[in-house]
Amino acid sequence: MIMTCPEPVEGPPTTALPALSSRVRAVRSSVIRDLLALTERPGVISFAGGLPAPELFDLEGAHASFDAVLAGRGAGEGSAGGRSALQYSPTEGNRTLREQVAARYSARGLPTEAADILITTGSQQGLSLLSTVLVDPGDVVLVESPSYLAALQSFALAGARLVAVPSGDDGIDLDALAGLAARLQPKVLYTVPTFQNPTGRTLDAENRRGVGAAAGRYGFRVLEDDPYAELRYSGDAALPIAALAAPGQVVSTGSFSKILAPGLRLGWVRADPRLRAGLVVAKQAADLHTSTVDQAAAAHYLSSDRLVPALDRSRDAYRLRRDALLSGLPAALPPGSHWTSPDGGMFVWATLPPGWDTTALLTTALAHDVAFVPGAPFFPADPDPATMRLSFTTYGPDAIAEGLRRLSAAVGAAG
Ligand code: PMP
């Protein structure tokens, strides 16, 4: 699955029906959308999708947890036995699951109570609710450039004015951040601080502290979107930005998509009480609450002893896959290219020499049965056409090596 902006929604005016909302009509469509659909053709080795490897899902554990919950052996929610798992439930989320999320934050050095957590339908819903609650039309939201596409969409739907903060291998440019914050009075800075989508970059502790300090000084909130933090294959863990800033200055989103399975659609927001109250209202309007049975099954799974070994298996497999991609890239990309070497997550970001256009290269690559995502759509403005995102989680090392041989042939044919 590849996230792109939706199709243009104007269409021919065939009837006298009212137009769609101006918010929806204002969201840009992506010119590479049709090309990306082709990356899912059978036979294509695709580095484009941001999918966890399905063979690493703990299917047996999922079976056991759903069985337990439906048999009334779940984590003590109500007196109706298994039937309570099929009932409506509180907007804030399953109490046990909130405690487990809080305990995981506390273990990472950010003391957290269950009450601080709102369970959401994927962390994407957290981003959407936060856009609704924090952003009025015209408000400035600062974003890294490049940044996670579906977050940009969510802010754009809320009417935000997206402004790029210069960022690179050394993290967010703190001087530039201060300048923009003083001039534009942003509401929010959105960052993916660990193994970012799309670049794989991580902000170091000093940069995180600097971001938190700037937020305090200039009075904006940091939205720390951190779904990849637990997929670390090398290096030392970094503290969340929320642990390095004043209380309430940072709102954090997280996800079970990368540690359990994305199809569960389970994520969360960690927020201060005032913000959480707004989020609960927005969530009631969106979906009342996240699936009761899925939350209960996840809570059961987390309290079993299966998560730690399952996560270790994923990390071990992904480490090998990352290494296979990194060791094959020098022979696959044109001389003068450079790329990130992430300590975790799912993505490597490559920059080809000036003059290359990766959207054009994708057409040639598809003719060689290999795919990647051109980097341009990830930029809020001024895209660099020579960039691309490569995901390394979907295939084993042999398929990755074969995909890179095909990419090398495509580069040779296009160059
Ligand atoms: N944030 C980032 C940075 C992501 O890459 C993704 C998914 N690819 C999400 C949020 C949303 O994930 P989910 O809704 O599955 O939790």
Give the SSE map:
Elements: H1 22-26, H2 33-38, E1 45-46, H3 59-70, H4 95-107, E2 117-121, H5 122-134, E3 140-144, H6 149-157, E4 161-165, E5 167-168, E6 171-172, H7 174-184, E7 188-191, H8 205-218, E8 221-225, E9 250-255, E10 266-270, H9 273-287, H10 292-303, H11 307-332, E11 338-339, E12 347-351, H12 358-367, E13 370-371, E14 373-374, E15 387-391, H13 397-414
Parallel strand pairs: 1-13, 3-4, 3-7, 7-8, 8-9
Antiparallel strand pairs: 2-10, 5-6, 9-10, 11-12, 12-15, 14-15
Helix pairs in contact: 3-10, 5-6, 5-9, 7-8, 11-13, 12-13
The protein binds 4'-deoxy-4'-aminopyridoxal-5'-phosphate (PMP).
Largest sheet: 7 strands, mixed
Q: N-to-C SSE series?
A: HHEHHEHEHEEEHEHEEEHHHEEHEEEH
**Through-space gap between termini:** 29 Å
What is the number of independent domains? 2
Bound ligand species: 4'-deoxy-4'-aminopyridoxal-5'-phosphate
Task: Write a structural description.
The protein is α/β, with parallel strands linked by helices and 415 residues long. Helices cover 40% and strands 14% of the residues. It has a seven-stranded mixed β-sheet, sandwiched between helices. The protein has a four-stranded antiparallel β-sheet with strand order 11-12-15-14. Residues 1-8 have low confidence and may be disordered. Bound molecules: 4'-deoxy-4'-aminopyridoxal-5'-phosphate. 4'-deoxy-4'-aminopyridoxal-5'-phosphate (PMP) binds next to helix 5.
